[in-house]
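Let's practice the habit of predicting before peeking. Look at the sequence and jot down your guess about where helices and strands might fall. Then scroll down.
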Amino acid sequence: MRGIHRKLRGTDPDTGETFRLDRSDLLLWVHCCEVESFLSTARRAGAPITAEDADRYLNEQVQVAEMVGIPARMVPASVEQMDRYFADVQPDLRLSEDARRGLRVLVIPPMAGKVRFLTPARPAWAGLAGMAFGLLPRWARRHYRLPGLPTTDLAATGAIRALRAALLALPDRWTGPPEVLAARSEMGRLAQLDGRVG
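Done guessing? Here is the structure:
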């Protein structure tokens, strides 16, 4: 992954200056957005994550950040540090035309005519995109000029909880990538062996 970032360049829309995308501050932004969104979405979906669990998760992610080239001293290792990081960077953020275009593509992705008109793909995607944007922090939604109301939070939380409940109701063999299914199978096998030994 570090090799990919080294090859990529960005252009500052104000100055026209070209910069590398493997800068520590840019990698840190991506890292923090990713790990915070996993954590906050899991918690809002109803996963039983305590405050200690959340801090431990973020502390474990410091090692992941180091693997992509971010110095450990820069990486938030607790919920409090993560909240402080986002509060500190907000004044430097702005909504660029590239971000607006990205938002439009996410909300209304290009689809072949057959898919768009003959399947429920477009409304299903709109529902998922709406839920995803509702799961963003209020400050981020306001930055995109999307509703930042508490009712948006409630609706998104209700939707993600319902989705989690539906997924948990499915048989294990229907959920998860092959690696997860293999791990579940191995855990079951080990539990059976443990039961025979005990």
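How did you do? The CA atoms of residues 41 and 135 lie 7 Å apart.
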